[in-house]
């Protein structure tokens, strides 16, 4: 009898997901849910054909070369910048991610974070909790309007379009966006969305939301030069990936009042946060929870499980990143 494939599950996931994997594979879970070091991950991958991973485990040439038996790396996240996809493809290792299932949840969070920055939620709550609220004032914690303002979106994929829908249809916002490729007219029309070049996006946005995938070419896509082109009354929201924004430059702009406020869910060196950001009142800071609702996290893990089962049982995985491996 051919031995069952073995799979490693890099983080603690829902019990039903492990149970489904166990119907097909020998499964090694991570019940302590501790983030493994590179060496620990490599040690545990010995003899494994499949890995169910997150956006946190570095899947690089050294790891792949140490485990030539590995056939599939299935991520429960949509982002896969932790994976050297070319190296996987060259070695015939399938990579899958979890697009689609987190779009609306992440768009909800992105929109809420943008509103929280514009309307100074965190600052207002800290003010109240500190006991400093003792009277009504005409300018108390006055923020910036969201309704009717210009919403700029950098990266108009699924999540970018879902945020644009919220802005255009729910809040009467004017939507402009910059993306490598322009959307078809049929997608732009219901939102009256307008493709603009990056310089125009920076200059015209009242609220700029970053939703582009991280690639080395996107590192510091928003740095000091880009921030200096934005309106001093504008907000910047990053729900994409750390590293797309130069956090030190952003902190300097916020401190100097060259940008009204920011909302951040991701950071250059997360979970470490640039120390200056932690001291500023005009930035709302979240711990990378864009897709974190229970239903969506279950759907993300479920998607990775579907992919892993298909990949190691000869079926067609639903969401491959490098489908060329399948042929
Ligand atoms: C994703 O799915 O890429 C989210 O950022 C979670 O890491």
SSE order and pairing:
Elements: E1 6-9, H1 15-22, E2 26-28, H2 38-44, E3 50-53, H3 61-66, E4 72-75, H4 85-90, E5 94-96, H5 103-118, H6 121-129, E6 150-154, H7 158-171, E7 174-178, H8 185-188, E8 194-195, H9 198-204, E9 207-210, H10 224-228, E10 235-238, H11 247-255, E11 261-264, H12 275-279, E12 283-285, H13 294-313
Parallel strand pairs: 1-2, 1-3, 3-4, 4-5, 6-7, 6-9, 7-8, 9-10, 10-11, 11-12
Helix pairs in contact: 1-13, 5-7
(2R)-2,3-dihydroxypropanoic acid binds next to loops.
Describe it for me?
The chain has 13 helices and 12 strands. Helix 1 packs parallel to helix 13. The mean pLDDT is 97. The longest helix has 20 residues. By secondary structure, the chain is an alpha/beta fold. The two termini are 27 Å apart. The chain has 2 domains: 129 residues, 3-Layer(aba) Sandwich (Rossmann fold); 183 residues, Rossmann fold (3-Layer(aba) Sandwich). 42% of the residues are buried. The structure holds (2R)-2,3-dihydroxypropanoic acid. (2R)-2,3-dihydroxypropanoic acid binds next to loops.
Question: What would a concise description of this structure say?
Answer:
The protein has 327 residues and is an alpha/beta fold. 35% of the residues lie in helices and 14% in strands.
Low-confidence stretches: none
Quote the distance from N terminus to C terminus: 27 Å
How would you classify the helix and strand content by structural class? alpha/beta
Reported for the largest beta sheet, the result is: 7 strands, parallel
Q: Per the principal axes of the C-alpha atoms, what is the gross shape?
A: elongated
Oligomer designation: single chain
Mean pLDDT: 97
Query: How many DSSP H or I helices?
Result: 13
Strand order of the largest sheet: 8-7-6-9-10-11-12
Q: Could you say which small molecules are bound to this protein? A: (2R)-2,3-dihydroxypropanoic acid
- The topology string of helices and strands comes to EHEHEHEHEHHEHEHEHEHEHEHEH
CATH class category of the largest domain = Alpha Beta
Percent in strands: 5-15%
